[in-house]
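Sharing a chain and its predicted structure for anyone who wants a worked example. Both blocks are below, sequence first, tokens second.
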Amino acid sequence: MSENGRLSRFWVQDLTRPAFEDWLENEPEPIVIIGIGAIEQHGIHLPLGTDSLGVHEFIHEIAGRTNSVCIHPCWAGFSPHHMAFPGSVTFSAETLLNILLETIESFAHHGVKRFVMINHHGGNTQTMQLAAQIAKRKYKVMIATPSGPRNTELSKKIRDRMTRYFEVHSGPRETAYALHYFPELVEMWRLENWESGVIIPDQLREYMDPDREDFELVNQVFHASLPPNTEDITRNGQYATSDPRKADPEEAAASMEESIQFIVDFIELWKTVPVPKGYKD
């Protein structure tokens, strides 16, 4: 599983203790990658675990390319806004925060100094960022939450759709990722008579247009004005006004490859930066 610090398996739960110790001792800059997702409704056609299933695949690929150890410490996340839809599971923010902190603390206790946290559920973002701030000071470890790229033609195209059609949950973009990663769990047949379930007022819909000259302003007003719970935004659980049947798995595969390679490049560059004095015991 590990020979002279080179891993053949990357999930921490798959490693023997001697294999982990060999990696920790011989990998010049050992990094642990932590995945964060959710178990929550994803419309009528995607599995409840879409976010966790996706981040599970994503971080394992990154770990394999960077000789890192990866862990997905919990399948649920912070999803109280989805609880009107059956099957959704939520932790409190405090529970999720403690799971992340205690995961980091455990590895830090054994000498790991660098951590990458990857989140695939928007509801977890603030909790993840808070965990990063606390852990840096409390455990004297380096924490990164990288994401990107944002400047490729493909990333710009997808980001435009996300803004223009509110394509953030269960729409074509996320459906495409699911069809790429776990097609056997996607029930596209349920979309035969699909129609948009979004119930956003017309005034706010006008603020979704990225071609507006005042888009920077109105887009922030749009997000500040959205209701807090999913059932007040959509009837069917899908946040996108666009048709999920237009999902393109090949586009998703290309997008994922861009994102994976970006984080791989981040990790490899980060490894060249010495651990600052403030993080040393």
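Comments welcome. The domain at 2-198+234-279 is CATH 3.40.50.10310 (Rossmann fold).
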